[in-house]
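We store chain and fold; example below:
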Amino acid sequence: MTVAQPGAGVLVTGANGFIGGQIVAHLLGAGYRVLGAVRQPEPFLRRFPVADAVAVDMNRDTTPESWLPRLDGVDAVINCAGILQQSRGQSIDAIHHRAPAALFDACQTAGVRRVIQISAISADAAAGTDYALSKKAADDHLAGLDLDWVVLRPSLVYGSGSHGGTSLMRALAALPFAVPLVGAGDQPFRPIHLDDLARAVTIILARPDLSHAVIEPVGPERLTLKQILLKLRGWLGLRAVPALPVPVPMVAALCKVGDLTGAGPMRTTSLKQILYGNDAPAEPFVVAVGFTPRTMDAALASHTAQTQDRWHARLFFLRPALRWLLALMWAVSGLLGLFLPAEITYPLANFAGFSEPMLAVLVIGSSLVDLALAAWVASNRRPGLACLVQVAVIVAYTVGLTIGHPGLWLDPFGSLLKNLPILAAVLVNAAIAEER
């Protein structure tokens, strides 16, 4: 039976992620050589300069041949790649099932016997979601191979940082007047701290007796969603407020909005996974890894919340709202320019003595630019470049109107003055746009 001892090379997929990044940190601290299999090697190498990286695309790397060259010098593989729900350009079946299955097949061909698969406690056919079914498909494929495999199915994973569902929980806990719950908030969890999960992975990697096993990493206490949210609120240092039960159909409707807009982790899949359950006995995991994970109170107390934690929690819902409001502003500006009567728009645009045809080109052109910016901001693609273009357009509009109509600065409705806070909003949106 093959195990990977410190000094061995470990390929980690999803190494830039919430779980994968912490596992990489523990592996490097334990003396392993790490190869991060990530979409963007540069940010990964900036975070972990002593590691190596290789560019992969789990949407496309779905054959063993695409993985075999990447296994040179690799002694073990840990698959941490995952997404909550399919979106444009992100195939949940490819990322959770077909690409990992191809990687596992390549491991068998290359003789890389030690493989750890990070799955989910709800990776069960009964859960019925694409998330659960695709995770289970990869788990089952790995279990059918002649490898020294371990499948880990953790419950809710939280840490000093957050991402996805844990960010949503912090944001719910930080709302000003009440902490909203899903129904009565009695859904059970066994939350485990990210450090404890990463420690367990490092232990399992080097243990020859842990193989051909499905293990459920869970914390030592069973907590309801309500208890978790109230603990997070206390950790953030915020005053107590009532817990507010929200009917499940109403939550489901909000998740449908999330499905349509692609904004945030409030999705139908996450709701179904919460309602399905995230509970399991604690004893088997403790016996398997040889240590007892910390309680949530103890783990939170080991890393006190700082100002940036409260900022992040409070900005969580404001971030998509800001993006969509900016997109709405550009869209309305563009539509008004196209459809308002010429006697309203032309006098504003005519500050250089343009002829009427030139004014028409100027008004229509600027309106189309505004509409294009609305679509770009809404898509959230390349937010840094979108920010620069928005700033350039706003500055150009402001300078042009200042030259042609300087009296607009004295308009009691702030016709030009409003451009200053809009510029600030554009810069803030760019600063908080990226999730990783």
